[in-house]
Specification:
Distance between the termini of chain A: 59 Å
Shape of chain A: globular
Number of domains of chain A: 2
Strand order of the largest sheet of chain A: 1-4-5-15-10-11-14
Helix content of chain A: 40-55%
Largest sheet of chain A: 7 strands, mixed
Oligomer: homodimer
Number of strands of chain A: 15
């Protein structure tokens, strides 16, 4: 039996799947951050086609040929059967993973960076801005803008800029400009630097700088790497491929796992399957978001309207949130340190079609080392949360004898996260307690929608 | 047209190709380092099957099923058509590359690490030792030994141990023990540390420590990641796959390029094609070794008997050499800093079936940045030498209008080499002059074979 189920470039899906077409209830409207009236994404920040996709209820949206051409650099990606992990766990479960680490930036992020750069280019935009924390999103946007010959300006949270120099180098190699945030490039940044010249920065602050930059500069737009509906839409390329790959071996998963920060990688992998469940088929399909116990948005947050950014510039949406003031503990899975979650994923979780589990950092690293020593690949600390979940279920199957088919989205490699592995092997990895009091205070500051 | 030419796991070659079967003249014998009499590899250091392969003249050698099973983790690897690079160069040439960066350690090195670990395991060896410089080979052996449940002891050149901490972390993730060399674990290391406690180490010294360790410890063998005939043999999996891939599109290369340090990656890619030339077909096939101008073994060295290691413990072989005392300048392509070259590749070069070109560091980085910004992937500084050569030829074809088919082995990614990219972008990359006087002195110390 083959370890890898492959698709040819011809077999790559030509359309993204929009789950908004199949949701039993529509999403609550996006609201203006000041008037609290229903609104679109600000047109001076976002391309009109992305704005259209954000609110579309068409089931299928065509992928432009120019985007498909770039996807073919690394897509379709392989679906792996994790035979060596199964053997080590002595489980009757069948474990599959969709491997997104083969993209040039090393994760699923370019699946949306490419179309975002493309649509902006088509509409005459010459320059894109964004923020990045650990750098997965920033490096993917740098890659995408270079291929479409756009300028790229990245505000990187200062503490990451200093601690993760090589993700910054990656952005440079693809021609992007990267500055530590807070920077003196924006009024927001200048104000923060005046108060605290040594400010380590935060994702919320970097978002505000990138938004301000796009707002005041000509021919510039802002981009976001997760949370928004159009981002989840673009990520469905992974789930659509996986579904075709399962068809080739006449199989279908019983359970799907993925790590959740903003929610885009997991939504992309799961929605094409979850669509079947929403239509009444595959009622027993278990769809499990895997989040850090230190930032447990889905398992401990509220399902309420909240701001996505600290400055309150962006539209507000109803989602699971720990409060936009909440600054999560410094776990190594930097990509999962977000106070909210994608509105679509939040609603489907709230309405009972998906569920979530939270995991502690050392358990997650135990799992990903086990993966590295059997399957071979070194994964990102974010992805490790899904590995923990799937190993737990595989071990449960060993007890019950169930021959379940388990799938997880293997969202990226950990080549730029080896300092975290070192900390694990030195026995210095910290399991942060859930910050009950901090979240309680943060949740008091949700916007007061009547 | 597809960007990638893929093979199924079923189509993966089941045998390695041994070019010794087709060489017009046999290799000069390997000699004992003291008696200068013909000898084998020391049986207390090497598995008997690897020793058999070293001297075999059988054309095909079966790949064990257990090795194929592990190869399938990442093999067959894709053959890419570099359409975006071609367009940027406005060349009529067709550029193809075989992409080995998809392996878990990120290079071609596991192609031989896996069988070396396998044969030693089969013969009851429980522990393997080796040296590593930049860490590509060390991390590949760590990966291989973990999958066959062997212990692994790696002597890492101290300066690299300190400058490249994340390659060391990678070896730890796969369960290997790594010590900086010189170490106090061996008599050789102790002697060096007594003379100079701050010694930065060298590859030759690390080899001597790894050899001594294997010699004095029970159930231990030594392994080498390049140069030897059996290493080149295992690497032919890449060239054999590439040949099948070209057959699928009814094409054949006019020229093949690869970077050369010890010579194993390029030999593996080129020999299955070069075999045709040796048999009298494809007489015009151009086979080009790409080496650094700072360590120009093939273009400026002598074709003589020399030691492979500094201490003179290993058998001596006839090869192109700059002298075993020569310590090359600290170019970023650490994997190309070797004074000698594989005996088979050396003889085929000497006898006129292959040729070599040498390149300066900044030219090589110009080329690899151009590659990153068109094809997307970030490559190792070693691999960059082949990219430089292929771009030069493609630009020449633009002048002449020739629609040549060019192939290069894309031997690995540069995710652990981004400090070198930083140096390039800071304009601080140094082009070392060829150290004429140093080499002249070094060449005076070749062993005096009558």
């Amino acid at each position: 039996m083959d370890r890898k189920i492959l698709l040819t470039e011809d077999e790559m899906p030509k359309r993204w799947y929009n789950i908004q077409a199949d949701m039993p209830e529509p999403l609550d409207p996006m609201l203006h951050p000041e008037t609290y009236k229903p609104t679109q994404l600000p047109p001076f920040l976002f391309s009109s086609e992305l704005n259209r996709q954000e609110f579309s209820t068409d089931r299928w949206i065509d992928i432009p040929e120019e985007v498909l051409e770039i996807y073919r650099i690394w897509r379709p990606t392989p679906l792996y059967r994790a035979t060596r992990l199964e053997a080590a766990l002595k489980t009757p479960a069948k474990i599959y993973y969709k491997w997104e680490g083969v993209s040039p930036p090393g994760s699923h992020k370019p699946n949306t960076a490419i179309p975002q750069a493309y649509y902006n280019m088509k509409e005459g935009i010459e320059r894109l801005t964004t923020e990045t924390g650990a750098g997965q999103w920033g490096s993917s946007l740098a890659f995408a803008t270079k291929l479409f010959d756009l300028e790229c300006m990245i505000y990187m949270v200062r503490v990451s800029y200093e601690q993760k120099p090589y993700r910054k180098s990656l952005m440079h190699a693809w021609g992007a400009e990267v500055v530590p945030s807070p920077s003196n490039r924006t009024k927001t940044g200048q104000a923060f630097l005046e108060k605290d010249p040594d400010s380590p920065g935060s994702l919320g602050l970097a978002i505000s700088e990138a938004v301000e930059d796009a707002a005041v500069n000509d021919n510039s737009h802002y981009t976001l790497g997760s949370v928004l509906n159009h981002v989840l839409l673009h990520q469905t390329i992974t789930g659509l491929e996986t579904k075709k790959q399962f068809e080739k071996i006449d199989a279908y998963p019983d359970a799907i796992y993925g790590c959740v920060g903003g929610g885009s990688n997991f939504s992309g992998a799961a929605f094409p399957f979850l669509g079947d469940k929403l239509k009444g088929d595959r009622k027993d399909l278990d769809v499990v978001s895997c989040e850090p116990a230190a930032c447990p948005t889905l398992t401990k947050g509220l399902y309420e309207y909240d701001f996505g950014d600290v400055a309150g510039l962006a539209p507000i949406a109803r989602m699971y949130t720990l409060g936009h003031d909440f600054i999560p503990p410094k776990i190594h899975a930097g990509g999962l340190r977000y106070h909210g979650d994608a509105p679509i994923l939040s609603k489907l979780t709230h309405d009972g079609y998906m569920r979530a589990e939270a995991y502690h950092q050392t358990d997650v690293f135990d799992a990903v080392i086990r993966f590295a020593q059997t399957e071979g690949f070194i994964l990102a600390p974010e992805t490790a949360h899904a590995v923990k979940a799937v190993i737990d279920e595989a071990l449960r199957c060993r007890e019950t004898g169930e021959e379940k088919t388990l799938l997880f989205l293997n969202s990226g490699h950990g080549h730029f996260d080896l300092a975290a592995y070192d900390t694990y092997f030195e026995g210095k990895l910290v399991d942060y307690e859930y910050p009950t009091e901090l979240v309680k205070r943060s949740l008091e500051n949700l916007p007061k929608i009547k």
